[in-house]
Write a structure and sequence with these properties.
Helix 3 links the parallel strand 4 and strand 5. The chain is globular, with a radius of gyration of 18 Å. It has about 350 residues and is of the alpha/beta class. The chain contains 10 helices and 14 strands. The longest helix is centred in the middle third of the chain and has 20 residues, at about 205-225. The two termini are about 30 Å apart. The chain folds into 2 domains: about 10-180, 3-Layer(aba) Sandwich (Peroxisomal Thiolase, Chain A, domain 1); about 185-335, Peroxisomal Thiolase, Chain A, domain 1 (3-Layer(aba) Sandwich), CATH 3.40.47. The strands form 3 sheets. A 6-stranded mixed sheet has the order 1-9-14-13-10-11, with helices on both faces. The chain has a 6-stranded mixed sheet with strand order 3-2-8-6-4-5, sandwiched between helices.
């Protein structure tokens, strides 16, 4: 009998895994945003001296992993972790796969689009709480050059975007989970369901993902018996300003008041009044670098004690778009407590 399941979507961990190390690396635009001083490493340009955006993204993931492992006190090569859980947005997870070659430990490649960060944390926590691992390394990445080239128009094309369009976050985040140690703990995870709100515009991902975010938040609160006020902060991954406002309204329709302690990582990572990023950030790295670079540090400073990270993902591809399909979406929630 699945005794750890407390509802159709939610698991409560009997032995909450500990975050013993975390790191965030970020690109030049992210470094100029309001959280730029919080990131562990930033890069002066999008290629970081390499021959392509894709190679640069790979190096960013490797750098984030090395920094997180160092923070966790893990210096062996290959590192003393049981599994590497990683994902990105590129064809067949090429960033994660080539990074796995460098890390050199057993690996699971994950794809949940921009929800992959919470997905990796949830699966890693289950591996540890289930007794299948003592340490797990989780990492995700995204890059404005590589993602825009694959999903929309290459940045070199110079196309004009609508105000609700988003700007892919360049960077990578990595977390080391362990069965014991010092640090914040993952206490619950709520696995999302795929939601289709009828949005087909690949530039309007905030509107596509907002219903999935609200659906998962509502399920998490219902199944845990918690309220919005039980969390110091609830963050979604990358709805950006347009999707954030939509999520607040959709939640209100379900009698959930999110505005007071709810923020979106895609809004937090940039200065929307000063930077040319349209509605804000998107991409796997959006939730990852804000959480690893800022929110976990706020927990260490004692300013946050209970955090709900709800990474959101648009599950579409150039193939599905070209065939006229809507954009199905998903969101996964992970509760992190000091």
């Amino acid at each position: 009998m699945a005794t750890k399941r407390i509802g159709p979507q939610t698991v409560r961990f009997d032995r909450p895994p500990v975050i013993i190390g975390a790191a965030a690396v970020a690109g030049p635009e992210e470094a100029q945003g309001p959280l730029g001083h919080e990131f562990d490493q930033t890069y002066p340009d999008l290629t970081i001296g390499l021959s392509s955006f894709e190679k640069a993204e790979r190096q960013m993931m490797i750098d984030a992993c090395r920094l997180a492992l160092r923070r966790a006190g893990i210096t062996e090569k290959p590192p003393a972790v049981d599994y590497f859980l990683a994902g990105d947005l590129l064809n067949q997870l090429i960033t994660a796969s080539f990074s796995g070659l460098e890390i050199g430990v057993p690996m699971y490649g994950l794809y949940g689009a921009c929800s992959t960060f919470s997905e990796a944390l949830a699966i890693g926590a289950k591996l540890i709480d289930g007794g299948f691992a003592d340490r797990v390394l989780c990492a995700v990445s995204s890059h404005v050059g590589s993602a825009e080239r694959q999903y929309r128009y290459p940045t070199e094309y110079g196309s004009q975007k609508k105000p609700y369009a988003q700007h892919t976050v360049t960077g990578a985040g990595a977390v080391v989970l362990a069965a014991s140690g010092t640090g914040p703990r993952i206490t619950y995870c709520t696995t999302g369901k795929v939601v289709d709100y009828g949005v087909a515009d690949p530039f309007n991902q905030g509107a596509a993902m907002a219903p999935a975010a609200v659906d998962t938040i509502e399920a998490h609160l219902r199944e845990t018996g918690r309220s919005v006020e039980d969390y110091d902060l609830i963050v979604t991954g990358d709805l950006a300003s347009f999707g954030y406002e939509m999520a607040v309204k959709l939640a209100a329709d379900r009698n959930l008041r999110l505005a007071k302690n709810y923020r979106d990582c895609g809004v937090m990572v940039y200065d929307l009044s000063r930077q040319n990023v349209n509605a804000g950030g998107s991409g796997c790295a959006s939730s990852a670098i804000v959480t690893c670079g800022h929110l976990l540090k706020e927990m260490a400073r004692g300013r946050l004690r209970r955090l709900l990270v709800v990474a959101t993902g648009a599950l579409f591809s150039p193939t599905s778009f070209q065939q006229g399909e809507n954009i199905p979406t998903i969101a996964h929630a992970v509760a992190v407590e000091a």
